Amino acid sequence: MVESVIEVEVVYAAVDRQVLLSVAVPAGATVRAALLESGVGAEFPELDLTGCPVGIFGKVIADPDTRVVQAGDRIEIYRPLLADPKEVRRLRAAKAAEAKARNQ
């Protein structure tokens, strides 16, 4: 019996470039298996595909080793944040308030 195959996409955006790879995986493959099958690790050797945070269509996957992919899924590999967005907004607001106070 022939094993059915599904197509998924794997995307990763590094600081200097982005890749979108189409990969055919067996039906029932997990997110982690699809990542390893995609070859993205060869293009970005600095990635730790066994422990990096990933998601599907913008939703973080808690356990990629057990989550099964569906045909057409876009698996996204996330980079760690360089700064906390809330802290950046707080600093920007404080700076704007300070500038406004100086101009009055």
CATH topology descriptor: Ubiquitin-like (UB roll)
- Looking at the overall shape, the CATH architecture is Roll
Low-confidence stretches: none
Which strand order does the major sheet show? 2-1-5-3-4
**H/E element string?**
EEHHEEEH
Tell me about the largest β-sheet.
5 strands, mixed
Mean pLDDT: 89
The name of the CATH superfamily reads Beta-grasp domain
Structural class assignment: alpha+beta
Number of helices: 3
User: Which outline best applies?
Assistant: elongated
What gap, in angstroms, lies between the N and C termini?
79 Å
Radius of gyration: 19 Å
The percent range for strand residues is 25-35%
Strand element count: 5
CATH class: Alpha Beta
How much helicity do the residues have? 25-40%
How many domains make up the coordinates?
1
Family: Belongs to the UPF0125 (RnfH) family.
Protein name: UPF0125 protein BK666_31480
InterPro entries: Mopterin_synth/thiamin_S_b, RnfH, RnfH_sf
Pfam family, one: Ub-RnfH
Topology:
Elements: E1 5-13, E2 18-26, H1 31-38, H2 40-43, E3 54-56, E4 59-60, E5 74-77, H3 85-102
Parallel strand pairs: 1-5
Antiparallel strand pairs: 1-2, 3-4, 3-5
